[in-house]
C-alpha cells in the first residue's frame, strides 16, 4: 500500500488507564479500563479531500409517502449537488425489493442531471426490504472501488420503518455490514420519523464504522444527510479498531454502544471514524480473580485505522496498563481517577438506558423497573464522590420512576439517540435541539 504525503501526516493517538490501579488479592474486584482515541493531521481544502464513492440507499416503502419521500428527494438532490466531478454516486431505491436507479456516475454536469432524473422519479410503495437495499448499495460501492481505489467508500442508508421482507435478523445483517467494512466500505444510517428500528440502524452503523442519525421531521432529513456527507469528508482516520489484550485470569467486557468481537485473550472494538478535535472514549469492565499480593495483571492496548483515501494503515503507539493486586486495607484506601470514573458512569448509564428502552417497547415493565433499580443502586455507589455524575444519576432516577409507563416511540428514539451519541462522542448534526432525558419526563 503506497501512501500519499497527506496520509503520512495523519496520526492516531491512544491513551488508556484504570479508574483504580489496585485490585483485591482475594479476587472479585471489578475495575475499569478507559481508552481514549484521537487523531491529528493536516487541515485540507475541499479540493484536496479524498474523492467520495457514495451510495444512497433510500427507503421508498409505503410509509414514506407524502412529506417524507419529498424530503428524501430534496436531500438526495442536495447531496448530488454537493459532490464534484471526482466523486461517484449510486442511488438505490428499496421497498419490498431493491432497484438500482443510478450506477456509480461521476458527479460532473451530465452525472448530476442523471442523478436528478433518478431522484425525482422516486415514489413510495410496498413493504420494506432494508437488507437488500443496503446490500445493493454496498455492492455498487465495492464494484466501483477498482475504478477509484484512493477514495472514501461510503453507504448512507435512509429508512423510516421496520424491515419486514428478506433478511430481518439484526445480528446477521450487522455481520454482513461488518464484512463490507473490512473491504473498506463504511455505512452510516439515517432514521426518519418515529417508526424506524433504532436498534437495527444502530447495529448497522456500529458494525459499518459509521454514524446513526435521527430525523424526527421530514424537514430535518436534508440537514442531517448533508451533515453526514461533510463529516465523511472531514474524518482524519477511518475504520479505527481498538484491541484490548487480557490474561487468562481476567474476564473483560465492553461497556457502551460499540460493535465488538471477543477472541481468545482479547476484545476487538470497532471505533469508527475519528474527527478533528474529538475524542472517543471506550470503556472496558474487568472482573479480576485472586492472586499473589503485589503481583501485576498486565493489560495491552493497540489501535489502528486507515486514511480516508484508504491508501495507508495508521497505527497508534501501543499502551500497557498495569493493575496490581493488593491487600484489603491498601485496596480500600486507594485514590481513583475521577475523569475516567466519569467516563465509566457515562458508558454504564448509556447501556442501562438502551436496555430500558428495549424492555419498555416489549412491554416488560416490571422487569424493566427491577433492572433499572438494580443498576441505579450499583451506579450510585460507584459514582459517589465523582464530580459530573450528578446529572447522569438524576436522569437514571427519572427513568426508574417512569419506565413502567408506556413511552411514545418518539420518547424512545430521543432517549436512545441521546445516550448513544453522548457515550460515543458523536456530534449532533440536526439543527433541532434534542430534548434531554429530564425534558422527556418533566
Mean pLDDT: 90
Topology order in helix (H) and strand (E) letters: HEEEEHEEHHEHEHEHEEEEEEEEHHHHHH
CATH architecture of the largest domain: 3-Layer(aba) Sandwich
Radius of gyration: 23 Å
Query: What is the number of helices?
Result: 13
- The CATH topology label of the largest domain is Rossmann fold
Question: Which class of the largest domain in CATH terms?
Answer: Alpha Beta
- Helix % is 25-40%
Give the biggest beta sheet. Answer: 7 strands, mixed
Secondary-structure content class: alpha/beta
Number of strands: 17
CATH superfamily of the largest domain: von Willebrand factor, type A domain
Tell me, briefly, the overall form. globular
What does this structure look like?
The chain has 3 domains: 7-41 and 237-333, Immunoglobulin-like (Sandwich), CATH 2.60.40.3670; 46-234, Rossmann fold (3-Layer(aba) Sandwich), CATH 3.40.50; 338-441, no CATH class. It has helices at 5-8, 67-82, 109-120, 130-144, 170-182, 198-207, 221-234, 328-333, 338-361, 365-383, 390-402, 409-424, 437-441; strands at 11-18, 22-24, 30-40, 51-59, 88-94, 98-106, 151-159, 185-192, 209-215, 237-245, 250-255, 260-263, 266-274, 280-288, 296-306, 313-315, 319-326. The strands form 3 sheets. Strands 2, 10, 12, 13, 15, 16 and 17 form a 7-stranded mixed β-sheet that branches. The mean pLDDT is 90. The chain is globular. The protein has 442 residues and is an alpha/beta fold. Strand 12 (260-263) and strand 13 (266-274) form a beta hairpin.
Amino acid at each position: 500500500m503506497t501512501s500519499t504525503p497527506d496520509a503520512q501526516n495523519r496520526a492516531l493517538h491512544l491513551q488508556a488507564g484504570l479508574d483504580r490501579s489496585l485490585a483485591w488479592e482475594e479476587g472479585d474486584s471489578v475495575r475499569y479500563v478507559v481508552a481514549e482515541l484521537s487523531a491529528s493531521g493536516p487541515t485540507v481544502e475541499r479540493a484536496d479531500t479524498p474523492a467520495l464513492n457514495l451510495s444512497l440507499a433510500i427507503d421508498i416503502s409505503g410509509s414514506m409517502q407524502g412529506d417524507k419521500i419529498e424530503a428524501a428527494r430534496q436531500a438526495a438532490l442536495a447531496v448530488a449537488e454537493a459532490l464534484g466531478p471526482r466523486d461517484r454516486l449510486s442511488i438505490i431505491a428499496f421497498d419490498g425489493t431493491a432497484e438500482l436507479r443510478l450506477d456509480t456516475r461521476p458527479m460532473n454536469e451530465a452525472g448530476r442531471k442523471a442523478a436528478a432524473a433518478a431522484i425525482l422519479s422516486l415514489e413510495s410503495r410496498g413493504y420494506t426490504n432494508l437488507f437488500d437495499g443496503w446490500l445493493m448499495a454496498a455492492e455498487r460501492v465495492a464494484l466501483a472501488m477498482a475504478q477509484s481505489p484512493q477514495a472514501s467508500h461510503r453507504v448512507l442508508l435512509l429508512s423510516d420503518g421496520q424491515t419486514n421482507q428478506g433478511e430481518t435478523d439484526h445480528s446477521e445483517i450487522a455481520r454482513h455490514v461488518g464484512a463490507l467494512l473490512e473491504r473498506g466500505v463504511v455505512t452510516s444510517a439515517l432514521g426518519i420519523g418515529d417508526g424506524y428500528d433504532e436498534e437495527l440502524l444502530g447495529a448497522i452503523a456500529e458494525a459499518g464504522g459509521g454514524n446513526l442519525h435521527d430525523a424526527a421531521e421530514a424537514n430535518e432529513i436534508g440537514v442531517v444527510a448533508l451533515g453526514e456527507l461533510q463529516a465523511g469528508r472531514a474524518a482524519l482516520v477511518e475504520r479505527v479498531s481498538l484491541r484490548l489484550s487480557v490474561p487468562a485470569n481476567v474476564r473483560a467486557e465492553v461497556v457502551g454502544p460499540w460493535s465488538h468481537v471477543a477472541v481468545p485473550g482479547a476484545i476487538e472494538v470497532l471505533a469508527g471514524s475519528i474527527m478533528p478535535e474529538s475524542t472517543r472514549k471506550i470503556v472496558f469492565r474487568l472482573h479480576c480473580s485472586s492472586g499473589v499480593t503485589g503481583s501485576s495483571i498486565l493489560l495491552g492496548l493497540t489501535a489502528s485505522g486507515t486514511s480516508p483515501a484508504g491508501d495507508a494503515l495508521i497505527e497508534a503507539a501501543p499502551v500497557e496498563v498495569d493493575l496490581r493486586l493488593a491487600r484489603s486495607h491498601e485496596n480500600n484506601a486507594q485514590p481513583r481517577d475521577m475523569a475516567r470514573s466519569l467516563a465509566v458512569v457515562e458508558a454504564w448509564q448509556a447501556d442501562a438506558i438502551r436496555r430500558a428502552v428495549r424492555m419498555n417497547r416489549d412491554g416488560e415493565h416490571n422487569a424493566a423497573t427491577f433492572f433499572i433499580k438494580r443498576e441505579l443502586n450499583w451506579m450510585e455507589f460507584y459514582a459517589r464522590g465523582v464530580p459530573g455524575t450528578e446529572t447522569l444519576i438524576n436522569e437514571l432516577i427519572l427513568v426508574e420512576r417512569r419506565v413502567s409507563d408506556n413511552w411514545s416511540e418518539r420518547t424512545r428514539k430521543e432517549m436512545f439517540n441521546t445516550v448513544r451519541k453522548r457515550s460515543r462522542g458523536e456530534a449532533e448534526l440536526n439543527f433541532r435541539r434534542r430534548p434531554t432525558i429530564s425534558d422527556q419526563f418533566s
